[in-house]
Each structure stands twice: as structure tokens, then as C-alpha cells.
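MODEL INPUT / OUTPUT PAIR
PAIR INDEX: 1
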Amino acid sequence: MTPVACIGECMIELRQATDGRLSRGYGGDTLNTAVYLARLGTPVDYVTALGDDPISDEMAAGWASEQVGTKWVMRLAGKLPGLYMIETDAAGERRFYHWRDSSAVRSLLSLPQTDDILGALAGYGLVYLSAITLSLFDENGRRRLIAALAQARRNSVRIAFDTNFRSRGWPDLEIARGAYREAFDVADIVLASTEDMSALYAGETGDQLLARIPSTEAVMKLAEPACLVRSAGVVQLVKAGPVPGIVVDTTAAGDSFAAAYLAARLRGSDPVAAAQAGHRLAGAVVCHHGAIIPLDAMPDHILSGSATPREASV
């Protein structure tokens, strides 16, 4: 099966309960996608940097236990992972607080190993990254990454870009818009949302925002439970089915959608069927707290049809 490389950052996750107590896990948009890809049977490696501390050890071991490859996880002496805290309201909508300015991954594109990491991307069938990935690096780092993606694409590697937008990651909107345009230019598949794109281009409709994306294959997730899928010049509306439980936390809804969409496409599903798979997995994920739901809560048949809870393994 086509191997995937996911590039980005994983952070320590603190989740606040209603009584104010915090529980600790870990997550990050592209890491969440990598884990869900692996759970859906797609070979995947994660490309990032961690520190040499016990929590970084725990993270790397946890990824390996999820069958996420770690050969391109750089370990940097004296560094630490970033940290974020999640608050959720009564409707499950989340609010993030980040501490990540000096995290290990900030150095990923300025290491002695950087050329080897970027050159290795040409050996994958698909490379996945997000706008948050781009926001981690300075202009020179972004330029190196975009150039490596363009070279990989010339070697028949497909590039998938997620528009996941966090305003705090960008010094101003014009820099963000420029980085998005560069990513769009090298992307074969763009996974977008009106929430992300409206932050960059206020006042535009879903159709107008979709028109800003030049790739032949694009998905625009809408404010309502549906998305627009464009492929071969045709745009189709794909509605989500009913959520199988109570929505308690929308963290990683988009990340899990991306995983199921890409996994389905890599198995030969058409874009509409892939979007339906994305809706199915995201609908299950939002019924659980945290970015990564328990393994025994993963639904069956995500890539082929109706989703039912999987039997817990003994």
C-alpha cells in the first residue's frame, strides 16, 4: 500500500474537566491524522522533532504502539515538546491555549539532518502537511519545505495540504496568505474549511473560497455538517450522516476527516465516497474527549460503509 509521510508537531495536551482538574495526553493536527491513518491500515511515518526528555520518550513510544513510523522523528538534546490546553463548552466546541514558541520542532528545518529528511519525502506515495506545519517555521524554513515538496511532486509523489488555520501562528494575514498560495501551488489535494478560509478571506461564500484553491481535487468543509467536493472540474455537495452519539468534543474532527478521506483515496475510492468516509470517522471522534479516541472506540467499516463500534480487543 502507498506509504504516507505526515509532517508537523505533536504537543503535550492538557484537557480541563468541569471541576477544573487537568488530564494529560498528547496531540497535534498532523499527528492526529497520522494515528488515524495508521488505524485505518495505511502505512505512515511521522516527520517531526522532539526533545530528549521523558515525555518525548513517552510520545515516541506511543506513536510506535499505534504503528506510526518514527524513523524521521529527530531527538534534540535540551529541547522539549510544545504544550496546549483545551477547554470545551457545553456544545463540545473547543478553545486552545498554546505554549510552543521554543518547542523542539521549531528547529526541524535547520538541522544537520534536514537535507536527508527533505530528500526522503520523494520516497513516499503521499506527503501530508497543514498550514499549522508551515506556521512552525520561518520564511527560510518554509521555502526549503515547499521546494522539497515540489521536487517530490516531480517524482510522482502526491501532496495533500490541510488549511488548518490558527491566527496566533502567523505574524500577519499577508504572510499567511502568501504561505497558503505557495502550498496550494504544490498540492494535489487540498482539505479546506470555510472556517479556515474565511479567516483569510472574510465575507466570501463557500463557492468563492473553493475557487481560490487551484488544485484539481479539493474538499471544502462547510459550517453545516456537509462539504463541497471538487474533482475533475465538478463540484458536489456531500452531506454528513447523523452523529452516532452526543457531541462532547470537536477536537480532531477535521484531522480524522482528513485521515479517512486520504485513506479511502489511497484505496481507490472516488472523492465523494472518500468524503463520506471522512464524515463517518469525524462523527465518531466528536463523541469522545480528546484528539485521539480510545482504540476500542474506533468504528468499523469507515472506508466501506456504515460505522459500528469495534469490539474491544482482549
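PAIR INDEX: 2
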Amino acid sequence: MSVTETQAIPDGTWAVDKTHSNVGFAVDYMAGTFTGTFSDFDAVVADGAVKGSTKVASVQVKDPNLEAHLQSPEFFDVERHPELTFESNSIERDGDQVRMDGEITIKGHTEPVEITGAISDPIADQYGGERFGLRLEVVVARDRFGIRWNNPLPSGEPALANEVTITAELQLAKQE
């Protein structure tokens, strides 16, 4: 693990508070941005590393037909690849900014990534516990993971961009 002068990640084991966290994505589509979230996800911080996963079947967008399409082999292929995962290899912190090198696996393919974002120091919560926050973002090229579906516009340009932004807003609670 790589650490700057400030401790990168708090000591101990921390689990995601799913009620106060979210995982989502955004991709340019036609004249705007298409967004979605995953309702079933997990994240743990332990031993100076971050590990996270999300269930593809929990993808949520504004149209159930599109949810089914995203779960199909043209996109995530939920039956063969039910989870997306991330695991950090190194974490660097500079004040409230954080950078993680790690590996993300989508549709059964693993790629190295650099995730950036913000981190808060641990605070005492109103229930006698401790928690801290991570706000993370990474941009991936979906074709690197075998996700190539597109529907060309009349101009011939692709309707769906290749670059996808994945975000995670996490509150993590210290485990006993």
C-alpha cells in the first residue's frame, strides 16, 4: 500500500452504510446524459484496502425495459456475469483528496483503473459509532469490457458514448 503523509484510509474494518450510500453511472446518450444506479452493492475498507461489488441485476433506470436490456448479453450479461467488482492496490491521500489504483471487473473482464475522489476523516455519529465518507469516480471505456452495443444516429454518429463515468458515494461505519 502506498500512503502519503496523512493516513490514506482509517485503521480498522469499515462497512458501507447502504442507506446513506449510492453507486451509479452516467454515459452520454444522444443529446444528453443517461444515468442509472445499482441498489444492491457492498463495500468494505479493511487492512488499508477498499473492496466493492454491485449486483448487476439491481441496475435501476427510469424504464424497466431498459433495465432488462442493460442486464442482457449486449450490456452486462447478468446471467454469466452477475457482479461488477473493484479492489484497490494502492491508496494515496492528499488532504481531503484520494486516489486509488486498483482493478475493476465488468462482464468478466478485469482492467486496471485509477479512481479519484474525496475522503473525510472519521467522525462520531449519533449512535455511538464512527463513520467516514468516500466520494469516488472513475471513467472507463465500455468497449474494453466487451460492451459494444450502439444505435447510430441518422448522421452516422453513435448514439451512446464509449466513456462511462462510474460513481460511488459511500458512508462507511466502523465495525467492532
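PAIR 2 NOTE: The first strand starts at residue 14 and ends at 16.
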